[in-house]
TrEMBL record, chain A:
Membrane topology category: Multi-pass membrane protein
InterPro entries given in the database record: Emc6, EMC6-like
Transmembrane segments: 35-56, 62-82, 94-114
Top-rank taxon, per record: Eukaryota
Protein name: ER membrane protein complex subunit 6
Automatic annotation (TrEMBL), chain B:
Membrane-traversing stretches: 14-33, 119-143
Organism: Hibiscus trionum (Flower of an hour)
Keyword Transmembrane helix appears in the UniProt entry: yes
Keyword annotations from UniProtKB, A to Z: Membrane, Transmembrane, Transmembrane helix
Compartments, record wording: Membrane
Name of the protein in question: ER membrane protein complex subunit 3
Keyword NAD listed: no
Amino acid sequence: MAGHSDSSSSEKKSSEAMNDLPIFSAENMQNNMKVIYYSRTFMSIIGGVIAGILGFTSLMGFVFYFLVMAITSFGLIAKAKFSVHSYFDSWNRIILDGFMGGLMSFVLFWTFAYDIVHIF
Amino acid sequence: MAEDLVLDTAIRDWVLIPLSVVMVLIGILRYFVSKLMQSSQLPDPKIVKEGQVIVRARNLRAAANFIPPKSFRSRRVYFSNEENGLLFVPKGQAQNAQAQMFSDPNMAMDMMKKNLSMIIPQTLTFAWVNFFFSGFVAAKIPFPLTQRFRSMLQNGIDLSTVDVSYVSSRSWYFLNLFGLRGLFSLILGEENATDDTQRMMQMSGFGFDPSKSLGAEKDGLDIVQHEWALPKFEHRAEAVLKKLIK
């Protein structure tokens, strides 16, 4: 899928290793934000389908959503070779950003898969 | 009370899937239509010039600490003087610019078109869903909700003992409406016009561009304290060059 292959190739360095001052290239920062967004959306859709097929209900499903988001965060951090500060300006970005945005997509695909597999 | 209602397979085939497919297709159609209908109007050169002056002033403010103090000050005087002339004019021109923005036929047409292209497909689809797909249970949402949601989610269903998880197709429509935004942003590339909040932010930031932001930029530029951020830069450059030459 276009969004997913993008995320594996184009996280760009957004700050040079200056002595005291971090300087951020705005364009690269934005690109990295976009990569995070696409990754999270894609993973929440896939996670929704998986949760539906496995038959998770209510609380288990939401726990699974948080699990998927955590896996996505971990994958992004690993892709940034664990030096988060040279790609993003704070930890919060890579961990928390876009968290809630994927929730609606997750619920949609979760409902869809659950209904198709279990109810009908 | 049946814990797990068994629903007809025909509902899945003829309601859930077609509704989702139709919404995806309408979203794609709307994206292409809005691309086609973008009227290419030549921008007013005066407005563009003012916009570029603002961009330059903003860049100066952002990168102020990376140029030596004297050159920063000379640049600032250049801007403040130049904009001084521009600052006094907008007082009389402020009303003009805004009124012009809103009564300008092209711009008003653009905004109207964008509004309509958002609202009409949604309204039509909603009416279609209500007309054809009402009066039966369409889907089961995997998590339980309280009784308050019953009236919202179970519109056509008149049995009050059915579990709130079993929803009508209207709520499936709304679920699709919100959930497909993420999918659209993946399929259609960049941010497209399917996101309400983004469009509203764009529209509200539109009409005030020339008049007020000049004064705002001038004030911002006056406020900046210059801190020379690269004091030892020449020493560093010397050290690096020496290493290269060795």
